[in-house]
Amino acid sequence: MNWFKKMVSVALGVTLIGLTLAGCGSTSDPNSKTDKTVNNSNGTDTSEITLELLYWGDDVQKRLVEETLARYTADTGVKVNAQVLPADGSFDTFIQTRLESKQLPDISYMGEADIQKYNEMGILADISDMLDNGSIPAKLDAITIHSPDNKVIGVGLSNQLELMFYSKSKFDAAGIPYPPSKVEDAWDWATFVKNAQLLTTDTKGNHAGDPAFNADLTENYGVGFTAGREFHHFWAAYANGGGVVSPDGKQFLWDSDKSVQGIQNIADLIQKDKVTSTFSYTWNSGIGSAIDALAGGYAMVISGSWDLANINGNDDIGVGVLPKMEKAVTMNCGAPLVVYNTSKHIEEAKKLYAYLVNPENSLDLLKSGAWLPNQADWYTEPTLIDKWTTELPVSAKETILSYSNTKDAIVQWPAYYVPAYIKMNTKYEQNIDQVLSGKKTAQAMFKETMPSIKQLWESGSVSE
Predict the structure, then answer these.
(1) Can you give the pTM of this predicted structure?
(2) Per residue in 97-114, pLDDT tens?
(3) Which residues form the signal peptide (predicted)?
């Protein structure tokens, strides 16, 4: 199951875009029987047009989307048939079946790691024109998805960021200052490890790093990770000055010494520093939400911004920037929306697309923290910032704005733009447990594995 599909289902769900989509800027009665007879640029009566949206979600989310689209129809005259799938990984199989029967939808949600595959199939529309003509205002670079030939093929519905969640009471008890909320103040790696050791204790109260500390009797851990290792492993590679693939897709970085050391630093938190539990998990399993982990045996948890929706006024939880290695950065994700170039009504499909990716139409999700705005000016314009940050913890607001307004502080998840990403990561997943368990160093594992992973990257293809 695609990790982001799972996480957004937990954190209110991707399809909760329907919660407020037409509730802002529209006073139309969705039950109105008044017919809309608006003509498009080709002179077609829009009331005769029906678009299809494919998405994933549960019964509640299905109801919300249907209510939203009813309002959209009332405003525009364009009917929208919304088909929902469960968030269980069946989307890919379903869309393949629809492709074979030549019945693709007009618009759909899509997993981050799937978008290059469908682009390679030649079925995704280029939406660059909407960004060029302003019908879609400038989006954050981090959630703007390009094809290998630099066409824009999708934008993320939300800008999800990896953040540091922490328990204020646990820090207070240990006498340690809270993690900073400004990128320029990020802890260096040595400070982070030292503080994590002070926050890690065994059943006798000994701290990690003390000669008397017994790791087998650990009662409290300094740091934990949720949402699966792929996210924070790649973050570590970039934070240490390496990476997976350069932002322009032209340079393979994963086998660099800096990437190797960044990932070794993560493994060392388990085997050397003794400040976190063994996490040999994948996208499909983990230690739960950051909130659950902080309520249990963890003082800090590195997780996604979607966990902000779970805080619900918990004053004990603060949010800060991630520690830095060579650089202070975070990594983003956010399932994109796409238009299919097979649509018989491409003009209307693009108009609906622009409506769905407008943050003005998802304010409740933004206020909760389950989503973060996908649009650049929502991080710079005071009136727009106030629309979505008033209910967030002050530390969370400061952290998110600091990342979003600091040049190069957000690294785009390579799943967005590397065609061979799925195959590359599958190979990595088959071997990384040897490093996390201490059986091999990252350097040794990379020496054995990276030549074949690099070959996959060099193919420049999803399928080959």
Answers:
(1) 0.86
(2) 898 988 999 999 988 888
(3) 1-22
